[in-house]
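Pasting two entries for a bug report.
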Amino acid sequence: MVTMRKLEVHELNRLDLEEFKRAKKYPIAIVLDNVRSQNNIGSVFRTADAFRIEKVVLTGICSTPPNKEIHKTALGAEDSVAWEYFENCTAAVENLKKTGYIVISIEQVEGSISLEKFVIEPDARYALVLGNEVKGVDQAVVQASNYAIEIPQEGTKHSLNVSITAGIVMWEFFRRLAL
């Protein structure tokens, strides 16, 4: 049997806040379309920090930092990851497209591409839109997107929690861009 020991925090060689802010980010923006749960928002920030995502874009009813409920799950990642707020998600998407992002709704729609089949171009900039916990990505936002990606599922439920979805999609983009 192999002996395993949990690493101490100082052994993980993580960047400090200032180093993180200066470090090159992966060209990905995570767009939250009317996500109501502050815990989900915080989880997205924390995962975005883990994968050195460029920014989080909050829209509509999303709470914004500083916020103690977001902080409960973000654990400070709301300070390391850049973020911006738009009142309207469609306006955020149009702004991202104008600044060179390929906008992808993470949603089950006609013509969606399965996540593992989507071709990620190494020099492209991506904005990944994740929707409200009940209604998903708004139809107008889906229509404004360049693509839609869905995560293959085989269970009885038709969707995953938004923060879980965000983690899976961020990991897949990070994995293909970094590793």
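Entry 2 (this is the one that rendered wrong in the viewer):
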Amino acid sequence: MDNLIKAEWFKLRKDRSLWTLIIILTAVSLLYPLLIVFDDGADTVKVIDFYRNSILGGNNYVLRLVPCILAGFFISSEYAIGTMKSIAASGNSRIRIYFAKLIVYSIGAIFISLIFPIVFTGAASVFLHFNGMPGIGYFAGTIGLTILYAVAFASIMAMFATIFTDSGKAIGFMLIFFILFDSILFLLSQLNPILEAVFNYSVFKLFLDIVNVDTVNGAEMIKLVVVPVVTFIAFGILGSVLFQKKEIK
């Protein structure tokens, strides 16, 4: 397992799609605060307000959509070019192969998910003269939960990337799925109490509550932490089962 993770980590570090996405998100994080300064002035906006509304709000889309592109190139493309066939024939069990790739891919998703909260916040703080900085507890709490939800969404993306053997199809399907699924699930939850419970305990719903981590009670905090962990485990197992039964050509 250790050698598999090292091999996947080497491939992730050399993955051009990951570095392209990181560079683009970093550039946006460094340049966008300038628009706020020019539009509203550096002394009229507090960093905490900008962090809550713009950074965490924008990261909702980054975390759910951008790793889909990485999944298509890092996972799905390996079926098309024959890499996955070679790995499956290496003598390692498919469960170990899948979880090694899932773990390393999740690390890539974490890198992507933290660019806005860290780089964007740092740049905004400088441009806004550190006016109204968020408390360290609130910042650390949102960062920790962002990591958990990045891993949870990564497990879902990895499963879809395993189903599709073409990176273009995988990316296209996942982008549409993650754009529309939470809205569709919300509409269905209004019609059925069971679906309402599913929606209320889904990562799609709870991820939006990260911004309010400073006001939630103990029970709600436990739910915010446990749900993404359970999601990662459940979809990790489901993905490994699908990978075991998948015919690799």
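Dev reply: Rendering is fixed now. As a check, the viewer should reflect this: Residues 2-245 form one domain.
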